[in-house]
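Explain this one:

_____
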Amino acid sequence: MDFPKLDEVYKLLSEKLETWVESAITILPNIVVAFLIAIVFGVVAKIIGNVTGKVMRKTFESRQIASLLTSIIKSIVIVAGIFIALDFVGLQGTVTSLLAGAGIVGLAIGFAFQDMTENFIAGIAMGIRKPFEIGDVIEAEGVFGNVKEINLRNTLVETFYGQLEVIPNKILFRNILTNYSYLGYRRIEIPVGISYADDIDVAANVITDAMNTKDYVIKKEETAVYAESFGDSSINLLLWFWIRYPGDPGFMSVRHDAVSTVKTVLEENNILIPFPIRTLDFNAKGGDKLNAMLKQRDSEHQSHQGNAESAATTDSASGGKKSPTDEE
């Protein structure tokens, strides 16, 4: 077996090394410039991150969302600097491969963590739209309470029964959400019934005047009482008035005071709040009332007592004498 001569091997290695050194010397300025580009982009990313972080913390209630968006912006700037530096050195193929690999990895992660990704994107979208803030009273998917925390995946709501509900952000983003704190006021509706013998307009006026004396009532020109329907024992009215919400006094305290006020003012004006009245009919075809049946029973009972007393009187008048038939 013939081995190559050492001189030829040495010559070949020398030529290769010389070629590499020449190439390195040729692209050395580009390498230096690429490092400078990467450093500059790193400094710019840090400056942009600091400025963006301050803006995001003022914009978003959630610290997590603010920090995440700041990190994403910084990462985009740094990655852009790296790609520009690689392209400047002449490694266009490497840049293309990195972009393709990043796309494939991102797609795989998206499919693997689809639910988490959806909540994450919904959290960012809600952070931008801000349909509610920490401390707001919201209602969604049967949950009603105060917002305590907003993070990237879910929102924590403390209900008025003292439970802490964890709601995924995608549910709040997809479905109907009611924010009771957004406008700062709320209407309260209180039903009340009056008797058919009382005047509807008089009752409405006295209730409206009494409610408008309350400090918690706002938009007093819109306080009103409407006749709603005919009830079994009453004319059903509906009281409307507006309060600040959330505010002090609270919703339950206001409603309690309103019900008490309506009862008091109706009593003072001799307007009856009736209770249900029932008439019992014991005849399948109708017509026989309970009071009539009781009267008939009492009459029959008195008639029986009268007959018994009459018979006793007759026996007493005969003196207890026996007839001839009895003696036999």
Summary: Confidence is low (pLDDT under 50) at residues 320-328. Strands lie at 137-140, 143-150, 154-159, 164-168, 178-179, 185-194, 224-230, 235-244.
